[in-house]
Amino acid sequence: MARKRRKFDASFKAEAVRLCKVGDRSIREVAKDLDLTETALREWVKRAEVDAGDGPPNALTTAEREELARLRKQVKRLEMEREILKKAAAFFAKENT
């Protein structure tokens, strides 16, 4: 049976990462204790390392990821607006001839 997707706030994620870092338990054990998937907890730990500057050199921080998502959404909206304006210009050019 598939588990329902849950959302966790930043403080919960930070505490889970802290338990992995400072404790003597593995990520697997912490994930089991908190009823999380091991994959999700590993991703949280990896992102925390990147945000702290300890990740791979080309990895994006959380803030950079959020900015990239915002910019992609903005580009998509602007491209749609441009297409609408092109169609409107073609319509009015055809109407005036």
DSSP E strands, number: 0
Largest sheet: none
* Coarse shape: elongated
Question: Which value, in Å, is the CA radius of gyration?
Answer: 23 Å
Percent in helix: over 70%
Low-confidence stretches: none
Instruction: Tell me the distance between the termini.
Output: 64 Å
Please provide the ordered H/E string of secondary-structure elements. HHHH
Q: What is the strand content?
A: under 5%
Q: What is the structural class?
A: mainly alpha
Provide mean pLDDT, rounded: 92
Enumerate how many helices there are, as a single number. Answer: 4
Top keywords for this entry?
97 residues; mainly alpha; 71% helix; 0% strand
What is the topology?
Elements: H1 10-22, H2 27-33, H3 38-51, H4 62-96
Structure characterization notes:
The protein has four helices and no strands. It is mainly alpha-helical. Helix 1 packs across helix 3. The longest helix has 35 residues, at 62-96.
